[in-house]
Amino acid sequence: MSPTLILATVAAYFLALFTISYFASRHSDNASFFGSRRSRWYLVTIAMIGASMSGVTYVSVPGMVSSCGFGYMQMFLGFIVGQLVIAFVLTPLFYKMKLTSIYQYLSDTLGASSYRTSAWFFFLSKMLGAAVRLFLVCTTLQLLAFGPLGIPFGVNVIVSVGLVWVYTVKGGVKSVIWTDVLKTLCLVVSVVLCIVFIARDLHLSFGGMVQVIADSPYSRVFFFNDVNDREYFFKQFFAGAFTMIAMTGLDQDMMQRNLTCRNYHDAQKNMMVTIFSQFFVVLFFLMLGVLLYVFAAAKGIDASGDKIFPVIATGHWLPVIVGVLFIIGFVSSAYNAAGSALTALTTSFTIDILGVKGKSDEQITRTRRWVHVGMAVIMGLCIVMFDILNSTSVIDAVYILASYTYGPIMGLFGFAIIVRRPVHDRFVPLVALLAPCICLVLDLNSERWLGGYKFSYELLILNAFLTFAGMCCLIRRMPKQAA
Fold first, then answer.
1. 339, 387, 452, 473: which has the highest count of C-beta atoms within 10 A?
2. CA-to-CA distance for 243 and 245, rounded, in angstroms?
3. Which of 276, 56, 23, 280 is nearest to 170 (CA)?
């Protein structure tokens, strides 16, 4: 694909995005920006199907089948269990308390320090995660389009962050939901049609395609052989359940959408339909991954991992429409994820860290707008910093850090929901910092200390448990009442 065609495809997508955002944001106010109880559950469901998938997911899930086959489905089975906990435990609780930011729950049950600790951990995790995802998109577009046209990377970043800011500046979460509907449609259509075109080029009927995938060594789903293997079933399954609870149920970005449903019964219907719909979308991604490797072997293409999908889609082996579909799916998943993160960061920072108690609606609006600008600027600076460092290990470290920060949040919520005892609130930040530090030490030395055991995503569970245990040590003894 030519750089001009790539940029024209991106421009066409953003034209559709701005049109939807314009109509969605009319008559918007602070309630609609932060998330009001006005959305129909089936609309939120369509939005949520693609909401959890970023541009990294779009290229990584098909590419990962060479290393772990369909093993990702083990984790997805855990996602289903985690979604049940979110739907029937957390959601009724948040609706009952009429929360705009879910971290307000900790303020009511534990105290101000616990509340702000969770908000700062969310801020750190979401900002770095969103910046890394958008950085990878910017570098891809720089390689395919901006670079060949002689446009500097800094201009690429300003344009990308600016576009994300513009379509979320007024409507907030209301615009995010409607644009996520567009994202879901683009994502599903692009993946399905890419499968169709690749299968057609390989001269495979539907039955033949299914047979090729089933016979492939990449189609293995379950791994029970070695407990030290990162793909070991119970590691993936339990990690999937806890990851879903932490990164959806206790994440302002994701729950902000669910909390826009009219009542918690509608939110529960939304979440159940969403998770089972996502099952088939992920299955399509994995099927596409197998076909990509079969296609690469047939054509002598030397590519694997995250590179295989973009290399094949934008190369000369398939019709141009495949490249167009790839760009649309990639851009929609990437920019919408950044937009929702920017909205959630603005909401959490305005409500949880700066506070809105006692302020007029006009003051809140002014504060929210400045915070929204500030979040966009910080995101852009983070992207530039990643480009200057130019180190894959730094990107990996940021993803690890982002996963570590959800452990303390989960531990705090678990204690608040299960134990519900007063604590020495001023020491909560210390506990929240110690837990991931201990996990890091264990992760670095696990093979030597634990007989070759390697931690995988289950480190999140240990992180949450250590935070929970630390909170138990902070329980205040109630004075005995006089007889």
1. 339
2. 5
3. 23
